[in-house]
Amino acid sequence: MYELDNAPLTWRHIRVVFVASLGQILGMALSTLVGIIIPLIQLFGHPELSSVQQGLLASTSLLGISFGSVIFGKLSDKFGYLFFFRLCPLMALAASLIAWYCDSLLVLVSCLFAIGMSVGGEYSLDSDYISEIVPSRWKDVLVGAAKAASGLGNIGIAAACYFILLKKPYPEAWNSLLLTISVLTFFTFLLRISFAQSPGWLISQGRYDEAIKSVRYFLGDNISIQKAIDKNEELKKQSQVPKEDSVNSPFFCRQNFSRIALTSIPWACEGLGVYGIGTFLPILVMALGLEPSISAHASEYVRFEHIEDSILITLLISAFILPGFALGLWLINKVSIIKLQGLSFILCGCGLVILLLGSLLKLPIWISILGFIIFELFLNAGPNLCTYVLPSLVFPVSVRGVGSGFAAAVGKFGAFLAVFFVPVLLDCGGMTAVLIVSIIIQILGASTTLYYGRVVNREMQKTTGKTVF
Q1: What is the model's pLDDT at position 90?
Q2: Mutual orientation of helices 51-79 and 400-464 as an angle, nearest 10°?
Q3: Hey, what CATH topology would domain 1-235 get?
Q4: Which residues make Cβ contacts (< 8 Å) with residue 142, sequence separation at least 6?
């Protein structure tokens, strides 16, 4: 018999990680898909779509994610994970089918918000399922691996859309691309029909017999949860003891300022790359002229081929997302997480500088593509991975939950601003304006990380006698 936290890693654990990771894949698939359909909508249906309207359309799903993560997270804490773990893909499936059947722009906005809500619910559930079932020594790696799986969403959707448009060049039916989301969510729901309630949640509710059955379903008969049960009983006893004032200190206080700055500001800066540039990557590729040029008087279908070429280059660039995550997972336990995040922000900025020089000096196309690759590689090796891990390292247990939630909220707000303003900047100042602002944001992310990382390290050394980074 093995205790749940100390059990050897088996294929049963990997199955749970895979099924839970599908929510991360859906989230980035949705972001990539929006960036592909916006130029098609402009060309074949709504040429009047302004840059502000493009930004609002693209950021709708992010608003949905924010609402969904709060609503479904709170409901799942109260009623359990399993029902909402199945509801979220069903909700996204229904919304994607409605958007496919009704090609109205208003319907599309509503459906993108609904799909975003389901993605937010997935984000609030996937890491919980993984962290409560996998052995302790594998938790950080496998939660990070689940986040890394999001790269499959970028690559898979870009590839699927490219081959769909290549085989069936009917760009006026842009809404049919939403069926890719329908297929993904239907597959996700099928895998979750045969699933069980989270044993960690059942233990927290004192439903120990059900928790034992759940663990046996997931991991077999040789896993014991007695230590987890004993720990839950001890926590119940402690919760009845009056807490010291120091434990109940407010989150927004001077002592936490450096921690809040370290975890929140870089996460907001990271949102520019993951969502701002990630969502509009096909449009930015066209703005940089990385695909064959066309005449200003070219027909709509020639312009459609122009969009197809941009999707192919987007697929090439997105292929470096997964190697970036793999590099980050390999380095995260070998070097300081602060150095990894700060240096990665700097290297992301270097990639954007290469892009800017390539655009201004009309350098060969491969140089600009190299700049994009450097940006994507180190964005995912550093900020996209590290910002997810940092809050659990720097906040004390008494405010860890609210600290992680606040950092994530600021990160999503930064992503919302990025997605809204990228098309506006592109319309007002062209690709040069987008790149200059993006470089400044990478510098802000790097300087904030390195400065407040040292400050937090000194503060924690004074209070605990230990350094974290």
Answers
A1: 97
A2: 80
A3: Growth Hormone; Chain: A; (1.20.1250)
A4: 13, 17, 130, 134
- Beta-carbon contacts of residue 314 (< 8 Å; ≥ 6 apart): 32, 35, 36, 158, 281, 282, 285
Domain with residues 255-469, CATH architecture: Up-down Bundle (1.20)
Q: What tokens were used for 323? A: 């190697």
Q: How confident is the model at residue 35 (pLDDT cuts 50, 70, 90)?
A: confident
Structure tokens at 256: 């936490």
Q: What is the pLDDT of residues 414-462, one digit of tens each?
A: 888 888 888 889 888 888 999 999 999 999 999 999 999 999 988 888 8
Q: How much is the pLDDT for 401?
A: 56
Show the tokens assigned to 49.
């779509």
In whole angstroms, give the CA distance from residue 279 to residue 418.
10
Helix (H) or strand (E) holding 466: none
Distance (Å, rounded) from C-alpha 268 to C-alpha 261? 11
**Nearest alpha-carbon partner for 77 in 130, 138, 125:** 125
End-to-end distance of the chain based on CA atoms, in angstroms? Answer: 36
Interatomic CA distance for residues 58 and 423, integer angstroms: 10
In angstroms, the CA 248 to CA 398 distance is 7
Question: Considering only CA atoms, which of 273, 278, 267 is closest in space to residue 30?
Answer: 278
More confident residue, 301 or 174: 174
Question: Average of pLDDT values for 234-243?
Answer: 64
> Taking a C-beta distance cutoff of 8 angstroms, is the pair 130, 17 a contact?
yes
Q: Cα–Cα distance between 154 and 423 in angstroms, integer?
A: 20
Q: Which two tokens stand for residue 337?
A: 């997480």
Q: Based on C-alpha coordinates, what's the Rg of the chain?
A: 23
HEC readout, 297-338: CCCHHHHHHHHHHHHHHHHHHHCCHHHHHHHHHHHCCCCCHH
**Residue bearing tokens 């990639």:** 351
Q: What is the mean pLDDT of residues 246-269?
A: 78
Q: What's the whole-number average pLDDT of the chain?
A: 84
Q: 186-222, pLDDT tens digit by residue?
A: 999 999 999 999 888 898 888 999 999 999 999 999 8
Q: Which residues are bridge partners to 3 per DSSP?
A: 224
Q: Where are the domains of the chain?
A: 1-235, 255-469
Q: Where are the beta strands (DSSP E) in 200-307?
A: 223-224
Domains 1-235 and 255-469 share a fold: yes
Show the beta-strand stretches assigned E in 294-439: none
Residues in the chain: 469
Q: CA-CA distance, 206 to 272, in Å (whole number)?
A: 43
Amino acid letter at 323? Answer: P
Helices (H), 102-149: 105-133, 139-148
DSSP assigned state of 2 = E
